[in-house]
Amino acid sequence: MDALLVLMVIAWALNYSILKRVFQEFPPMVFNTLRMVLSSAVFYGLIRAARWRARLAAPERSTTFYTPNTLTTRDRIDLIWLGIVGHGLYQLCFGNGLAMTAASSAALIIGCTPVIVALISVAIGRERLGPLHWLGATLSTVGIYFVVRRGGSSSGGEETVAGDLLVMVAAVCWAAYTVGGTRVMSRHSPLYVTGITMICGTVPYALASLPQFFRVDWRAISITAWLLVIPAGLLALCFAHLVWYAAVKQLGPARTSMYANAIPLTAMLIAVLWLGESISGGTMIGTAAIIGGVLLTRLAPKRGPATEPAQA
After folding, report:
1. Which DSSP state fits 156?
2. Domain count, the chain
3. Is residue 126 pLDDT above 70, yes or no?
4. Residue 286 exposed, middle or buried by CB count within 10 Å (0-12, 13-18, 19+)
């Protein structure tokens, strides 16, 4: 599992540079639709295969890929809104934001997700934060300021700042997906929840991007760009998601989450080597602040819920 988590870090970090490269030829929403449709089809096939295998072997036994629980009305509502927010709206903001900013900046901002998750948990009364948590949140906020400020002083100007802000909204969407999915994840397998929410998010996203498909000059798209649909869909959306949730179930969230801290630095290194992105002094300060804030948030002891959460 640890080896798979290392591959997951590489897949997610590499995805930033892949998307930056592809967005030179594809409109962001068009390419994202292609890779989301591909991953949705793969997830659907895996869910069907897991059900078929479970019925032949042990239909009453829960595993990482299958649970025998039936869907309730609450489950269906959760799956729909999680898909729309965690995949549809997330990809809308992430893809368009990444197209306007540097891959390294986007990776750093998304790397603040654990801090946002902690703040959302406080807002809904799921837990109370201690001094180290608040120090970590403040430090990460300062780091984001340096990253966005770097964008404002770069050649991209206001467009780069707008891209950074869109990526920040994407980070909030993913945090909401992470926190909001805990209840339905306790009843259903990671494969089922991830796959169904992916499908629920892909449908409205594809409909919204449909007008852009008619404006693409398909003959101008290179073979390389077409081939990159495969790793962007199968590695970043299918493989990495499955490994992440399987690791949370097997190793626990604390040990699994430590691997997420390596993603921003790995993505930055790949962007420098592949895309030739430069790292300014302000970006380095922002990097240190963001990673330091995330580590403080991870390592600080939890205070427990401010109020007892309602039973599902």
Report:
1. T
2. 1
3. no
4. buried
d(CA 122, CA 128): 6
Residues ≥6 apart with Cβ < 8 Å to 287: 108, 143, 147, 264, 265, 268
Domain that holds residue 29: 2-299
| pTM across the whole model | 0.80
Phi, psi (deg, nearest 5) at residue 223: -65, -35
CB atoms within 10 A of CB 308: 9
**What pLDDT is stored for residue 5 in this prediction?**
85
User: Is residue 144 included in any domain, yes or no?
Assistant: yes
User: What are the structure tokens assigned to 125, written together?
Assistant: 């009364």
DSSP string, 102-122: -HHHHHHHHTTHHHHHHHHHH
DSSP string, 181-216: THHHHHHS-HHHHHHHHHHHHHHHHHHHHHHHHTT-
Q: Tell me if 305 is assigned to some domain.
A: no
SS3 136: helix
